[in-house]
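Re: duplicated header lines in exported structure tokens

Our pipeline writes sequence and tokens for each protein into one text file. With two proteins the header for the second block appears twice in some exports. Here is an export where it did not happen, for reference. First protein block:
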Amino acid sequence: MIGQLIGGAASIAGSMIGGRRRREEQKRANAEFAAQKQAFQDFTFTNPFRGLENVAEDLTINQDAAQFQAQQTDAALAQSLQAATLTGGAPGGAQAIAQAALRSKAGISADIARQEQANMAARVNQQAKLQQLEAQGEEDIQSQQYLQQGELLNMASARKVAADQARATATEQLVGGIGQMAQGAGGIFGL
């Protein structure tokens, strides 16, 4: 009976020792849990690839090379025409020279058109790549940040559960100690 009184008193004392610390920890754990829960709800996802610039957008064609080639062709044809005139060449020779000049200019135009077509293809390919990166980036960043925020919420939840359990255990000790003391007192006083 006296043992029950002593055991009950020890149980009550054990539940009270650190009680303030447990209540403060529970209060901090509850506040952290509420803050993490709110952060989880308010989380905004962003995409680091949004707004990238198409680097192929400003590609140009090399007109210097085309102009140089045209000048060289014109000079060579002018020399040929001058030589034909000086030597009394046939009238068909001048026409052949003019046709050669036209073919050369057509080749230069074709080269410029090929460069323009290559630049357009590069622009389109780069734009498609940017769109793919933007979409992939959107998915990746959302997944990573969602997992991070979920992990923070889980850690805060575990802390809250531990603090709640510590308080519940202390309360059980207090109630158990009071019960033990009541039984011991009942035995002593014949109740």
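Second protein block, exported in the same file:
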Amino acid sequence: MEDQSKLHTEVEISSRWLALINTRLKLNCLMANRQKFGCKAIDPVIVMKMWNSVLHDERGLPDNWILEPWVLVGMRVEHPLGHNQ
């Protein structure tokens, strides 16, 4: 029998998944920074197309959202009671 205290809840799994996806989004945006990476930077248009229909409130984002540090993947994660949101 498995120790139930060592199993992750659905909320924990969803939160970790969302954090991982948001980390990838931030990395993709950073890799598109031409000032930092010059000719090795990823084309920002490719990054924008890759994340199309995945971002939270995509219609409300500025045209060049790739430069915004607060853009997040569009999933709602439920927080367990007693945890910060």
